[in-house]
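Q: I have 314 residues here and want to know how they pack in 3D. Can you give me a structure?
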Amino acid sequence: MSTSNATADHRWPDITHSSWAETAAALHLYSQVLGKMRLTVSPWTNHSWHVPLYVNARGLTTSLMSHSGVDFELRLDFVNHDVEIETTTGELRRVDLGPGTVGNFYGSVMAQLRQLGIDVEIYTTPSEIADATPFEKDDEHRPYDREAVTRFWHALVSMQRVFNQFRAGFRGKCSPVHFFWGSFDLAATRFSGRDAPPHPGGVPNFPDWVAREAYSHEVSSAGFWPGGNGHDAIFYSYAYPKPDGFERASVRPDAAAWSDELGEFVLPYSAVREADDPGAALMAFLQSTYDAAADAAKWDRAALECCLPEDARG
């Protein structure tokens, strides 16, 4: 393999969902244990921006949190494949990521937190998963494919670079690029500033009032989902509320299309991975679907968008 191809495979690896579906399901639940800790100890921020995880140099992190006088951070480390619990006083605890049960993982994480003086009760029923089993009662043995998890993380790192550049072109209200553990997706959301009609709710194990607050204002949102329920990994883009004619817009690249089933534009991750310039292909999708949403909904684009000066691009 040439050096250039090796680099491309590292940055945009093969993450076909069927090749790691059981591990992905386990990782989804492990991420929820950490995410629910952040939800419990963090001040509420609009649109639930206080709950996501963030891509970092080793995996996913909660960022710094505080509880009972202890400042600490939880990290899913996809290099050493463990959970790191670190305080600002230099104390560090680890819990292995590997084959096992969610119940044992949850118990181990909570025990390590208590040893550090962080005694918190979290709501243990997984969010946004139908018929979910509470963490402490989940005794199903689950596999853990270290190589697949590492590939997933490398893919997140690559797409994060593109999402960050896309986000920089908007001066209006815009979310961070963050990883929602409930839906298990990386996302960035732009806001028009106008009110939206109440969201209908109906998401499994997710309070309707949270959904209504999350979608209290018009949005154009795009992200990445690693797949599930018969779907492979995709990039997606939607608008809430959906403006008339949005689904008929012409978007790029050619592999992008509207999904009636999902109610959003989708672009297979594999199409981005196989493109001559994956970053450019993803940026074309993000920009063209946003253009379609903003134009159809008649956003004040001149007021909301910006262009960085060339010397600020680094």
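Q: Anything worth noting?
A: The CA atoms of residues 272 and 292 lie 20 Å apart. The helical segments are 3-11, 21-41, 102-115, 146-167, 208-214, 269-273, 278-296, 301-304.
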